[in-house]
């Protein structure tokens, strides 16, 4: 009976799977734990494994809880410390406020300045424990009451400075929307159709019906000045900014600033004629021959043949 049975399975080893709860897993995360004796912060799993917080908010809460009292935790200070943008840090702070890990309030200091006070909670809803409260020792009945100490009235805090904004220049008003000199139903219909059609080529310029009616007189002015619809469409839709924040204001600005002048008339395009001075005809006082001169007198031949006559005439 003392012969070992070679067909029996061997006994399980103390470290085999199924016999120890702390067996090393074959997949997943492995922990190498070193006990800290200084420079550490205790964080609960309710924060580290919170399912409603983003990873940025969890990391930011752990960082804030590790800071000493009085450390700067403003959005600008945190964005200067970490690569995340101010928008992401602000969103993470709002998450921590919503879940009770953080509380921010605006308080006024004795000198009148307004500052933001931030309180970090390692357990949402926690209050100051009774062991950390400062209790006054109870006085016995036999002891005489202490004489009242003179109460000094603290000086009132200085008044907060009144901020007076610097005067600014009056805002320049935009030019008025042009209107046609002779508005007609055909011009109005063509202008509204062109404005409504802008969204086909430029979806950013999708205009409401009320804005189309308000801008129609400006486009009608372009049409009245013989501008082709394709020319108007190109002027309103070329080189659009990204994005177009106010489509109606953008279209109104281009209608007024790019408005072409009226076409000149035929008389304006005709070059001016040179003025011709016509010298009238005169009859010679001597030979009665016709000649051109501004005043009556003698012709050239008579003035040459009879110089004495010219001398007497002079």
End-to-end Cα distance = 179 Å
Strand content: 5-15%
- How many extended strands? 4
| CATH level 1 name of the domain at 45-123 | Mainly Alpha
Morphology call: elongated
Enter the CATH topology name of the domain at 45-123: Arc Repressor Mutant, subunit A
What is the correct CATH architecture of the domain at 45-123? Orthogonal Bundle
Major sheet: size, sense and barrel closure? 2 strands, antiparallel
Average of the residue pLDDT scores: 80
Brief synopsis:
The chain is built from 12 helices and 4 strands. By secondary structure, it is mostly helical.
Account of the protein in words:
This protein is mainly alpha-helical and 314 residues long. Among the domains are: 45-123, Winged helix-like DNA-binding domain superfamily/Winged helix DNA-binding domain (Arc Repressor Mutant, subunit A), CATH 1.10.10; 185-257, no CATH class; 281-313, no CATH class. It has twelve helices and four strands, in the order ααααββααααααββαα. The strands form two sheets. The protein has a two-stranded antiparallel ribbon with strand order 1-2. A two-stranded antiparallel ribbon has the order 3-4. Helix 2 packs across helix 4 (86-99) and helix 7 runs parallel beside helix 9 (247-257). The longest helix is centred in the C-terminal third of the chain and has 16 residues, at 209-224. Mean pLDDT is 80; it is low at 12-19 and 131-143.
